[in-house]
Amino acid sequence: MTAQKEFTLTPRRRGFHLVTEEIIRNLPPLPPAGILHLFIKHTSAGLTINENADPDVQTDMEAIFNRLVKEREPYYQHTCEGDDDMPAHAKATLSGTSLTIPITNGRLNMGIWQGIYLCEFRNRGGGRRIVATVIG
What Pfam families does its record include (predicted)? Predict the structure, then answer.
C-alpha cells in the first residue's frame, strides 16, 4: 500500500515550532507497519525531529541557527527578497527538507521525547506545503 497526501501547515512566525499533532491530523490512514516520508516544498523552511518536552529547546534552536547563519552578511549576493531570505535558504539546507519515520502498530514510532518541528526561517513564510507519503 502506498498513499500520498499534500497539505498546508498553519502559517507560523519565524522560529522552531512543534507540528507533530498537526502533521498526524493531516495524514492518510496509517498501515500496521511501514514508513512515513515527509517533504516540505520550500527552500526557506525545514523539517526536523527534536525534543518535544521543554519549550526552551525551541528558543535555543532558533538562537543557535541565528548565530550560525547571520543576516546582512556582506558576501551575500541573493539579497533582493529581504534580509531574512538568503539566511533562510542556508538554514533550510542545514535542517533538511524531509523526514522518514517508521510506522509501528498504526502509529508513528518516535521516541517519547521526540516531536516533529517546522523550522520556519522567514519572518513571514506563510503556509508551508507538506507532501506526506505512507508506504506499508
Answer: YjbQ
Write down the domain spans for the chain.
2-135
What does the chain come to in residues?
A: 136
The set of residues, in sequence order, having a beta carbon less than 8 Å from that of 74 and lying 6+ positions away, is: none
C-alpha grid cell, residue 107:
502509529
- pLDDT tens digit sequence for 90-121: 999 999 999 999 999 999 999 999 999 999 99
Q: Residue 7 CB: number of other CB atoms within 10 A?
A: 15
Q: Which CATH number fits domain 2-135: 2.60.120.460, 3.40.50.2000, 1.10.3720.10, 3.40.50.1970?
A: 2.60.120.460
Q: Give 6-57 as a 3 state SS string.
A: EEECCCCEEEEEECHHHHHHHCCCCCCEEEEEEEECCCCEEEEEEECCCCHH
Q: What is the pTM of this model?
A: 0.95
CA 91 to chain centre: 11
Encode 106-134: b = buried (16+ Cβ within 10 Å), e = exposed: eebebeeebbbbbbbbbeebeebebebbb
